[in-house]
Amino acid sequence: MTEERTGTGGGPTGRRNADGSRASIRAVANLAGVSPSTVSRALNTPELVNAETRRRVLDCAERLGYQPNRAAQTLVLGRTRNVGLIVPDIANPFYAPFIKGVEAYFRDTEFAVFLADTDEDTETESRLAEAMIERVDGLILCAPRMSGTRLSAVASRTTVVLANRTSRNAPSVLLDFQPGMDQAAAHVHALGHRRCAYLAGPANSWSNRQRRKLLGAACAERGIELVDLGPYEPRFTGGYRAADEVLAADVTAAFAYNDLVALGVLSRLTARGVPVPGEPGSSGGLSIVGVDDVPMASMTNPPLTTVAIPVNALSRATAATMHVLLDPGARKAPPAPPASELATRLLIRGTTGPV
After folding, report:
1. Helix count (H) and strand count (E) of the chain?
2. Rounded to a whole number, what is the largest CA-CA distance in the chain?
3. Which is higher by pLDDT, 75 or 341?
4. 3-state secondary structure (DSSP) of residue 152
């Protein structure tokens, strides 16, 4: 028998029939003794169909190897089963495990993840968000740089979940920087540092403002003078450029916005023959503290002291929050882990030492 290959909410997917055609929604309807529209409701909006009918439809669909056509479902239900993920810079090694974590979470769900990179450009970020709204059911924005007004506009048009950024119009999954920054300030204070620099990241970065605020409070509490330098691009080249300004600032230690900036500083100081962290009793050395704990932070010489971010927990929590919002009945995990799982901590390595 030749089966019709199209239908409401269905399409050419599933097991092939003897003539090479695929099981259709009409074939399922004929076998179950219901209309194609009832099959569509049973598969897509089961709450509208009584339990006995739904079980019969599902059994027949399984026997025929029928699977709903995603494109047809989009037309019928207005849902794409796609999630958009926008990150500031996929070349930054911090974002790689975040991206992998989100994709891993959604891999065994009905949702696919579409990735976009803004290259640290606010206008590009806004443009990508606007373009993806019509193609996805929700947007995950990781450390977005756009203004609060633009962020609210995006959130008014689709489901949005923020990672490491707050907004009154969208749920957020936030890192706890308090313990990490407090430990970093206590560490350099114990080493005798009293005048330090903060190498700022992007001026429009909410995360940069949070790090500076918490670090500033921790330093003030211990009598450490914190000199502001920058902003610098949050890349290796930004840190390389910052190094000379750090030396001119007459400080003994530097806190970098992230590890890439810290590694750029380390490279430039090494090229100039400036010891990091320097020998006790000698002059001219400098201690460096980064943030993120990217893989190469432990591979440098000396290895980088850094405030480690639990990026895997951050990605899982963000993905789970989005999943619950898009499909409350398919909750895979709690929408957010305990706060302790999102807390930062200092990893003391080789780039910090006594004044």
Report:
1. 12, 11
2. 91
3. 341
4. helix
| Residue the block writes with tokens 């399984």 | 62
Q: Tell me if 224 sits within 8 A of 142, measured CB to CB.
A: no
pLDDT per position as a tens digit, 155-196: 999 999 999 999 989 999 999 999 999 999 999 999 999 999
**Do residues 117 and 90 touch, judged by C-beta distance below 8 A?**
yes
CB 304 within 8 A of CB 349: yes
Distance, CA of 80 to CA of 231 (rounded, Å): 40
Give the pair of three-digit tokens for residue 322.
Answer: 């989005």
Alpha-carbon distance 168 to 151, whole Å?
10
- Please, are residues 115 and 108 in contact by the beta-carbon 8 Å criterion? no
Scan for tokens 């206008």, then name that residue: 123
> DSSP readout, 62-131?
HHHTB---HHHHHHHHS---EEEEEES-TTSTTHHHHHHHHHHHHTTSS-EEEEEE-TT-HHHHHHHHHH
Phi, psi of 82 (to 5 degrees): -120, 145
